[in-house]
Amino acid sequence: MLEDLLEPIKTESLKDVFVLRFEELILSGKLKIGQKLPSERELALQLGVSRPVVHEGLVLLTTRGLVSLKPRFGATVNDYRKEGSITLLSSLIHYQKGKLEPELLESLLQMRLLLEPPFARLAAENRTQEQVREFQRILEMEESADARNTQMITDLDFDFHLLIAVASGNTVYPLLLNSFRPVYTNLSGQFFKDPQVIAAVHQYHRNMIKAIEAGHGGKATSVMKEILCHGEKHLRRMIDRQA
């Protein structure tokens, strides 16, 4: 029974906890696709929160594609694989506590390999001199960063890839990549704990800057493929160790 799954919420950030609880119920399959949820009033009573908290939480779940809201009918559970938005990826990572199921991991790796090499080529063809200087500035910060500061190194690596997206001249791709930031940094942050990986990645970045500065699209494409294959190899190795 749904009533058995819903215990009163006792916390200051009520809306966030409401959303988190329903994300877990939906992603785990405890709430089934097409299942109608109780009314906002009933949910508020069951959870011990106000109706505005319930309404705002349902609206947020709607934007993530987890539920549908219809006037005078209420909320029903969606098939998130068909209805989910890009923001749902962060929820999937959070729900699985950073440990991606194999299917999702494979999908992410495949997507990067399909998208990033062509955009590296475009970056080499379309970059400005100011962007070349920005690449070099990021590299200098990477090389001077303390290897123990995994968060900083991870953030700089993301900034490097985001700058490639911006330099490509495509207006949509940087927005898409930014949407993936929590997922991207969750994955890359795992293998940046290895100093040898850090050194190898920075060498790849130096090679990428040379290709982009020279306007060599083919070289930029091949370097990006090397970066992605290197990252995938070490990520899989770390996952195997954890398993």
Topology:
Elements (H helix, E strand, L loop, with lengths): L1 H4 L8 H14 L12 H8 L3 H13 L3 E4 L3 E4 L2 H4 L4 H8 L6 H25 L2 H16 L5 H18 L5 H7 L1 H11 L3 H19 L3 H26 L1
Antiparallel strand pairs: 1-2
Helix pairs in contact: 2-4, 3-4, 7-9, 7-13, 8-9, 8-12, 9-10, 9-11, 11-13, 12-13
Please provide a brief summary of the model.
By secondary structure, this protein is mainly alpha-helical. Helices cover 71% and strands 3% of the residues.
Question: What string gives the helices and strands in order?
Answer: HHHHEEHHHHHHHHH
Gross morphology = elongated
> Helix coverage percent of residues?
over 70%
Identify the CATH class of the largest domain: Mainly Alpha
User: Helix count?
Assistant: 13
Approximately what portion of the residues adopt beta-strand conformation?
under 5%
Q: What structural class do the secondary elements suggest?
A: mainly alpha
Strand order of the largest sheet: 1-2
Number of strands: 2
CATH topology of the largest domain: Four Helix Bundle (Hemerythrin (Met), subunit A)
CATH-scheme architecture of the largest domain = Up-down Bundle
Q: Provide the domain count.
A: 2
Largest sheet: 2 strands, antiparallel
Low-confidence stretches: none
Query: What is the fourth-level CATH superfamily of the largest domain?
Result: GntR ligand-binding domain-like
Estimate the mean pLDDT confidence.
88
Tell me the Rg in angstroms. Answer: 22 Å
N-to-C span? 34 Å
